[in-house]
TrEMBL record, chain A:
Family: Belongs to the ABC transporter superfamily. Spermidine/putrescine importer (TC 3.A.1.11.1) family.
Annotated keywords: ATP-binding, Cell membrane, Membrane, Nucleotide-binding, Translocase, Transport
GO cellular component: ATP-binding cassette (ABC) transporter complex
Domain ABC transporter: 13-241
Protein name per UniProt: Spermidine/putrescine import ATP-binding protein PotA
Source species of the chain: Embleya hyalina
Highest taxon listed in the record's lineage: Bacteria
Task performed by this protein: Part of the ABC transporter complex PotABCD involved in spermidine/putrescine import. Responsible for energy coupling to the transport system.
NCBIfam families: potA
Gene3D superfamilies per UniProt: 2.40.50.100, P-loop containing nucleotide triphosphate hydrolases
InterPro entries with a match to the protein in the record: AAA+_ATPase, ABC_SmlMolc_Importer, ABC_transporter-like_ATP-bd, ABC_transporter-like_CS, Mo/tungstate-bd_C_term_dom, P-loop_NTPase, PotA-like, Transp-assoc_OB_typ2
Gene name of the record: potA
Automatic annotation (TrEMBL), chain B:
Main subcellular localisation: membrane
Family: Belongs to the binding-protein-dependent transport system permease family. CysTW subfamily.
Name this protein carries in UniProt: ABC transporter permease
Organism: Embleya hyalina
InterPro entries tied to this protein: MetI-like, MetI-like_sf
């Protein structure tokens, strides 16, 4: 207890050169990462990207191949899980089936020699609104209730860091949304560092202050949800986190801090500050909802906006709040455009000729690479 | 496509016949459980219920082989049997209990290792556990005569280690020999019934989610505490079934006592066997069988009650 309080002065989690390989397979490439104390941090990625392995190395359930884990000022790399000031909410909760809800929640306290756990257990169960179920066995609870028991069982120990391994994966969509808000509220209340592993980009964006997008055992990009969404720095992030329209372009000149681009014969503008690429060739990206779509016969576009002519609608899907268009561009690529349903233009049906335009500030530039990186991973997780 | 087609026809057929045969499936279905039960019931009636009644009647008869036996409701036969043979009953349950404890002590770590540590070798280990069953019970037991022979290496080692002094002090061995002592009978029982302990234990341990071990570790439980507080409680159903499967047949066994023991180590099974096959005193043998059965049922019921209400999930 005292040991934890001392280290609690700084509850940062720092990973230095941390990696893990199993034989020839590299699960996590050497990684340096600092998770600030008190933050809600998400490790986001598709299955097999190394996010869970990273979490398990912080928990001590997996021994790193190289590197160190510090919690606060303390090097915990060599400590077994039961000596680390962290607690985990497991993917399928891993509640003890032979113990009542109250005994599950009090398990950690008793292991640390706390004599009278009843009061604390009751308070914690009230916090997660399960006080009336204290005597039940966990198998007789619903998924959402089990999930809250798992959170209570971890939180009651007031760890310096709470690790959550896909904690909402087993819940249905509605319950998941509700639990997301609940977890966020609890985190704000208790102020403990949360490290949350998930494959659900929406979940990560709703809850986390900072997201690390992982791919192939490496962190692709680290930042706030807004940063990641508005300014992705790799094609993987652009495609995995939300959707993007990506087109290869060549830099033809510079003016006033803007890059002048040639993309498939179209002249586009991109603020230099919004490009992550240095070279002559880059990939220009624009999010579907940032694009305005108009019928060819209304070809009047304000000055200073990027425009692409000659598109043809191949698909229009009405999804309530918006309409989702798929537009085939003259060079064969398909663009996705989301249009709010305010004034629907009834001419915008499949087969109609359209032009697309957007504010250059909304574009982003990426290093050339695989334009479809992350697309498959994102749709796999949606399924 | 073909699956859809089949489904389509099936549905149409069902709709067509609904009117004339709406209750037919239910009526036909009612007989199914009885039909499935019939072979088992028949077997039980012929080979269990009828023999029980015959045996019960035999146990209350008087007479002798030459004049024949008559049913005289001679309950005193039971009291005579208990009075005369209670040492054998005590030995039966004592040896069976000792063998069960030995089986648990040997079998639990074995089952634990197979379930959690054996990895891809699990299957092979399980085959090795049941491999002794490929030889006959009798041959296996006789083999122990050689293993425990007076000048054999096992007894020599035990003597050198002064282990036989300890067992002699406990009344389990005599004169630096193991064969023809209670210890030999207990060893034989342990050996012969070990798989009955290991298999249910393994089945139970193997079902325990390894993430529960991780969760316990995550909640400050050392590996030892994890075993005491999580693994062992969760394996109790296996412990209960394993001990029952060992204790029940062991307490009725007579082969081990006959081949590895001496006249002083006779168990209830030996008495019953002698009465039935040598003395040909059928009423006494039948009464002994009933007493043995009744005592086992009582003990097992008490055990399950205790285990079931206090310790099990």
């Amino acid at each position: 207890m005292t040991e934890q309080q001392r280290a609690g002065a700084s509850g940062d989690v720092s990973l230095a050169g941390l990696s893990k390989h199993y034989g020839d397979f590299t699960a996590v490439r050497p990684m340096d990462l600092t998770i600030p104390a008190g933050s809600f941090f998400a490790l986001l990625g598709a299955s097999g990207c190394g996010k869970t392995t990273t979490l398990r190395m912080i928990a001590g359930l997996e021994q790193p191949s190289t590197g160190t884990v510090h919690i606060g000022d303390r090097d915990v790399t060599a400590l077994p899980p039961y000596k680390r000031p962290v607690n985990t909410v497991f993917q399928n909760y891993a509640l003890f089936p032979h113990l009542s809800v109250a005994d599950n929640v009090g398990f950690g306290l008793r292991r640390r020699g706390v004599k009278d756990t009843a009061g604390q257990v009751k308070d914690m169960l009230d916090l997660v609104e399960l006080g009336h179920l204290a005597k039940r066995k966990p198998t007789r609870l619903s998924g959402g209730q089990q999930q809250r028991v798992a959170v209570a069982r971890a939180l009651i120990n007031t760890p310096q860091v709470l690790l959550l391994d896909e904690p909402l994966g087993a819940l249905d969509l509605k319950l998941r949304r509700q639990m997301q808000l609940e977890l966020k509220r609890i985190q704000t209340d208790v102020g403990i560092t949360f490290v949350h592993v998930t494959h659900d980009q929406e979940e990560a964006m709703t809850m986390a202050d900072t997201i690390a997008v992982m791919n192939g055992g490496r962190i692709e990009q680290l930042g706030s949800p807004v940063e990641l969404y508005e300014s992705p720095r790799t094609t993987f992030v652009a495609n995995f986190l939300g959707q993007s329209n990506l087109v290869e372009a060549r830099v033809t000149g510079r003016a006033d801090g803007d890059l002048l681009l040639d993309a498939q014969g179209n002249r586009l503008v991109l603020p230099a500050a919004r490009s992550a690429a240095d070279g002559e060739r880059l990939v220009m990206g624009i999010r579907p909802e940032k694009i305005t779509i108009v019928h060819t016969s209304d070809a009047k576009v304000a000055d200073g906006r990027n425009r692409l002519d000659g598109g043809v609608i191949v698909d229009a899907a009405f999804i309530g709040v918006s309409t989702q268009y798929v537009v085939r561009m003259p060079w064969g690529q398909e663009f996705t455009v989301f249009e709010q349903n305010m004034e629907r233009d009834r001419r915008l049906v499949p087969g109609a000729g359209v032009l697309l335009h957007w504010n250059p500030e909304h574009g982003f530039g990426l290093e050339s690479g695989d334009l479809t990186a992350g697309v498959a991973e994102a749709s796999e997780d949606a399924a | 496509m073909s699956a859809l087609g089949t489904l389509g026809t099936g549905t149409t057929g069902g709709v067509d016949t609904t009117d004339k045969a709406s209750d037919e499936p239910a009526r036909r279905g009612r007989w199914v459980p009885y039909a499935l039960l019939a072979p088992g019931l028949l077997w039980l009636v012929v080979f269990f219920a009828v023999p029980m009644v015959v045996q019960g009647s035999t146990s209350l008869q008087t007479g002798n082989l030459t004049k024949g036996y008559d049913l005289t409701w001679h309950w005193a036969g039971y009291w005579d049997a208990i009075e005369q043979y209670h040492p054998q009953f005590l030995r039966s349950f004592g040896y069976a209990a000792a063998a069960t404890v030995m089986c648990l002590v040997i079998g639990y770590p074995l089952a634990y290792a197979i379930a959690f540590k054996a990895g891809k070798w699990r299957g092979m280990w399980l085959v090795l556990v049941i491999a002794p069953f490929f030889t006959s019970f009798l041959v296996r037991t006789l083999a122990w005569k050689t293993i425990l022979a007076d000048n054999g290496i096992v007894v020599d080692v035990l003597n050198t280690l002064r282990f036989t002094d300890v067992t002699a002090f406990l009344g389990l061995t005599q004169d630096d020999r193991v064969l023809a002592t209670p210890l030999a009978v207990i060893c034989g029982l342990t050996y012969n019934f070990l798989p009955f302990m290991v298999l249910p234990l393994y089945a139970c341990l193997e079902r325990i989610d390894p993430r529960l071990h991780e969760a316990a570790g995550d909640l400050y439980a050392s590996p030892r505490t994890t075993f005491v507080k999580v693994t062992f409680p969760l394996s109790l159903p296996g412990v209960v079934s394993g001990t029952l499967l060992t204790f029940i047949p062991a307490s009725g066994d007579y082969v081990n006592a006959q081949w590895l023991g001496s006249p002083d180590t006779g168990m209830a099974g030996n008495v019953i066997q002698t009465q039935f096959l040598r003395v040909l005193d059928y009423p006494t043998a039948a009464a002994l069988s009933f007493i043995l059965m009744l005592l086992i049922v009582l003990m097992v019921t008490a055990y399950i009650r205790k285990a079931g209400t206090e310790d099990l999930v």
